[in-house]
Amino acid sequence: MTQNTAFEGTYQGEHAVWLRWGSYEAAIIPEIGGNLIAFRDTEKGYRFLREPEEGKIDLFKAAPVVFGIPVLYPPNRYEDGRFLWKGEEYRLPVNEAKTGNHLHGYLHTSPWQVEDYGQTKQESYVTVKNVIDENSETYKYLPFKFTVKLKYSLSDHGLLQQLFVHNNGDKEMPCLFAFHTAINAPFAPDSEEKDYLVKATIGQRWELDSRMLPTGSFQPLSEDEKKLQGEGVNPFFEEMDNHYTAVPQNGRNRMELTDTKLGVTFVYDVGTSYKQWMIWNNEARGDFFCPEPQINLVNAPNVDLPVDEIGLFSLAPGEVWEETARFYVK
């Protein structure tokens, strides 16, 4: 049995904070996006999150968005880099040449600070923060002052994530966040991709144009997508880079990945503030996929639809928003 603890160490040569509780362990790399790069069950050999192979940390540094749990602000794509907000137009650099859009912002690549870590009788935990001000890459393009904190806690009940946002500035700010969570399938060492079924609390599928931007219309779900809503489907049944509304079931908004060989289900319960899902499976190549809980519709500030429908909401000066998510096995 692993000692229940939290400590500073390294992950493939990078500064990291490790959490251990029972058979669980997790590691966060603060200086590269505050990314929780590992969540494992060491007794069973489960590795739930996609990690870079040993000795290939440079792959993570080059593309941190496809490993671990990257936090995005603002998430996904913005047409021509334009960002309309409260009568003002802001410009983000076009960083996805094939679509001519801005993609994902800068929180997932910027350095975060360790605020605290430790252990109690109930959990081991770490808190990291990112203060957005004149010195931040994000502020260059979206000049709003705010603090983002992420707390991760390990306990008998798995991994708890707490996201906290505080508007430190003097003007209303857009509160648009998501996680590009990379889940292993298989997560068990002796299982195969074919052994896995995924289901998620998706509702309707947004139609996307050739630039991967929502048209404002919906598309009918395929029979396999209906299985995704219900009994489950293999995560690699076809190429997926799909955008859906989120519709909580039984009071919860979640993704469940079942290893049918072992009869084990990995649950990602994301909280009901996330009104949209992106589901991306890397061209159905196998090994991992990304069920991405997202507050807002892709390109939301530039879309003429009701703000509540597209998850476009704000924080006034001094206001706080927070949400939790939990990862566990049943």
TrEMBL record:
Domain of life, per the record? Answer: Bacteria
Annotated GO biological processes are:
carbohydrate metabolic process
Q: Name one GO molecular function term.
A: isomerase activity
Q: Which InterPro entries match?
A: Aldose_1/G6P_1-epimerase, Gal_mutarotase_sf_dom, GH-type_carb-bd
**Entry-linked Gene3D superfamilies:** 2.70.98.10
- Its name, as the record gives it, is Aldose 1-epimerase
The species this protein belongs to is: Fontibacillus panacisegetis
